[in-house]
Design goal:
Elements lengths: L2 H16 L1 E2 L17 E12 L14 H12 L29 H5 L2 E3 L2 E3 L1 H11 L7 E3 L15 E9 L2 E8 L2 E2 L4 H18 L3 E15 L3 H7 L9 E4 L14 E4 L15
């Protein structure tokens, strides 16, 4: 099995066996029929992935690799907050009539801030520091801006990334306040693994570790039978990750700059309801 399969299997089994239920409490999320969407959860799950050894994609079911990359480019490269710049419909429920999700995600990364070296947005500051100050312990982004929360379609889930260079290896910590483990866990892991590879390549570094910290790792009540089915699947070895080594500018990457060779996965033909 892939290492990402092992991590997810362990996480899901831990939540099923030891998770805490919020049944009986008032909760914000709802199902499409208006029923409260309750969860069982574990607090503070921390997973480590060595990107130099294996790309962290699951094979228990398919992760839509290209769509995941398209979204991470929408946020980090296009710095967009409009779904019309995105190739999928995953954000449709949180967009207004113009397609905007408000001052969320890409919007926050696009705002320029003043530094002694000049004005940079958060992404360009990371790129600058990785090239000019790689030993810095201050290379991070944060899009959980309390001043703008009231104008966001959805409060950021994956909200902060800390980059850290050890030797010639670029490592990163992804902080996430909340995660739907069935729907989004491997989606986010793949996205930020690709982001580390991108940042490393254009900075003359090698991809190192991705550490994923989830404060509230949960399984929704209507997902529990689906999770039990997923855990019956036979996993496969991890595919080989390939990226276009000729790209030296972060803004020149496209979703077609990346591919997975030999990606085998189990069919998962169950419709997964999404709580909003």
């Amino acid at each position: 099995m892939s290492y990402a399969d092992k991590v997810l299997i362990d996480n899901l089994n831990d939540i099923l066996a030891n998770g805490v239920s919020d049944e009986g409490y008032d909760v914000r999320p709802k199902w499409e029929d208006g029923t409260p969407a309750h969860t069982i959860k574990k607090f503070a799950m921390v997973n480590r992935y060595d990107l130099s050894k294996e790309f962290p994609i699951i094979t228990l079911r398919r992760t839509a690799f290209k769509s995941a990359i398209d979204e991470i480019l929408w946020i980090w490269q296009k710095k967009s907050n409009n779904i019309h710049d995105l190739g999928s419909h995953i954000w449709d429920s949180w967009a207004d009539e113009t397609g905007s999700i408000g001052k969320a995600y890409g919007y926050q990364l696009s705002v320029k801030h003043h530094y002694p070296e000049g004005d940079f947005d958060q992404v360009d500051r990371v790129l600058y520091d990785l090239k000019h100050n790689p030993r810095s312990r201050r290379i991070l982004t944060n899009i959980y801006n309390h001043h703008d929360l009231s104008e966001m379609g959805l409060y950021p889930c994956a909200y902060s990334v800390t980059f850290n260079v050890s030797g010639n290896r670029l490592n990163a910590i992804l902080n996430q306040r909340s995660q739907d483990m069935l729907v989004a866990n491997n989606w986010n892991v793949c996205q930020y693994a690709v982001l580390v590879h991108m940042m490393a390549q254009v900075s003359g570094l090698e991809a190192g570790e991705l550490v994923h910290v989830v404060a509230d790792a949960h399984i929704y009540d209507r997902h529990i039978p689906l999770v039990r089915e997923l855990l019956k699947a036979e996993p496969f070895p991890a595919p080989k990750f390939e990226m276009d080594k000729s790209v030296q500018n972060f803004y020149d990457f496209t979703k077609d700059s990346f591919r997975l060779d030999g990606y085998r996965f189990n069919p998962f033909d169950f419709k997964i309801p999404v709580a909003i």
